[in-house]
# Entry
Amino acid sequence: MARIVMKFGGTSMAGSERIRRVAGIVKRQQEAGHEVAVVVSAMAGETDRLVNFCREANALYDPAEYDVVVASGEQVTSGLLALTLQAMGCKARSWLGWQMPIKTDDAHAKARIEDIDSGALLASMAAGEIAVIPGFQGLSPQGRVTTLGRGGSDTSAVAVAAAVKADRCDIYTDVDGVYTTDPRIVAKARKLPLVTYEEMLELASVGSKVLQTRSVSLAMKEGVRVQVLSSFIDETAPAADTLPGTMIVSDEELEGSDMERQLITGIAADKNEAKVTLTRVPDRPGAVASIFAPLAEANINVDMIIQNVAKDKGETDVTFTVPQSDLARALAMLEERKEAIGFYRLISNDNVAKISVVGVGMRSHAGVASTMFKTLADRAINIQAISTSEIKVSVLIDADETELAVRVLHTAYGLDAAA
Ligand code: ADP
Ligand code: ASP
Ligand code: MG
# Structure
């Protein structure tokens, strides 16, 4: 017997028919003798719909009230899955974020889980009851509902798995594993049987939305065994226990396997960033700090940063990227401080995409970045910004060229599946 946490994403939960299929998969895991807890997302498209309502109500919305609205999608699906399981003769009970409780900090709309009280949950699982937990939501120290940021149900699942010391956390989604790039963009993408935590962390953080970044860092920290696999299966599909999906593993586990290590593990695209440029910023100590300090205080993550060399007038242009969802707030904040910072114009562009190549092989091989620049140049794709880390190179390009860029890079690094 094992203790398994299963998570089902939005596409898997979209409508009664699909919820019945999910219930069937859950029931089979229980019948295999496991103790199970299930974490669910809102139905596909529902969170977007709710976010739009918030924007229409108030463009500069209060994140605490936004959380009240967007957390509702998962409440619906958790109740529906519990009902469906009961209709199939299973014992099932939903556990909302405040009931467990899943305690978070008070950073509304991007809260971090601090603690999960798992006592009652463990007792109910041990009694053969299937626990159904809405993902994405938690409870702030002030007793208000919080959400964990888009895609946060993955993190809920890993956190529950860590709290109940699960043997495995199975993340069921609409693809059957982690691929070398988004298989919906590149038909020749290859499925990876194993990916290391570190590579998955980097892939997620640069836009492979198959797993939320925080879920991967939490899994790495807590040593949770995570598998990504498909929920679009029938009874004849191999059981989850045979590991048909992609396992996220440690470096040592990968070294010990017979999988050949490639220079590049994967390529990711992120269209959710926006570029901001401040022109003619005074070139003096403290100028850059006066731009980024207020953004940091407002919890706005700045990613790529470029500061041009000052021209003769002692002025310089500063360009950086922020998440599109924070763009309106960032612009309002900078405009307010225009005099204090001393810039001339504020320009923004949200039609950009960040393309990243990731692989631990980069540590020991030169030339990854130059291959990237040359491949894009050959297609006349212009690079607007560059950033690098030890195992990643990212470039910012026009969003309209995303698919072309990912496809040509996938081929250039030899990642295409054999025809
Ligand atoms: P869920 O609703 O189940 O959480 P998501 O839409 O958040 O599902 O994540 C699954 C999607 O992630 C896939 O449909 C796929 O388009 C996308 N994706 C992006 N990069 C990758 C990748 N490298 N491997 C697999 N899927 C990827
Ligand atoms: N429903 C939330 C979202 O769409 C959380 C999730 O699906 O993981 O972002
Ligand atoms: Mg997701």
